[in-house]
Amino acid sequence: xxxxxxxxxxxxxxxxxxxxxxxxxxxxxxxxxxxxxxxxxxxxxxxxxxxxxxxxxxxxxxxxxxxxxxxxxxxx
Length: 76
Hints:
The protein is of the alpha+beta class. It folds into two domains: 1-33, no CATH class; 34-76. The chain has two helices and four strands. The chain has helices at residues 17-26, 60-65; strands at residues 5-6, 13-14, 42-43, 53-54. The protein is elongated, with a radius of gyration of 14 Å. The model has no long low-confidence stretch (mean pLDDT 89).
């Protein structure tokens, strides 16, 4: 049996605790990063893309890669 660490925000797994801490800080599903996956303005267009679309027509490439989107809004 191998001990693994799971991200608190997604299903990412690592054997090294420090690697997991590094991942969690930048995880796309961590609300602190204000990325598309945690925004109420994002929606799945049904395409085979992994990045959602934006109701506010903002760049989801920037929102996903950089985070801290100006239009980001958490679930109420």
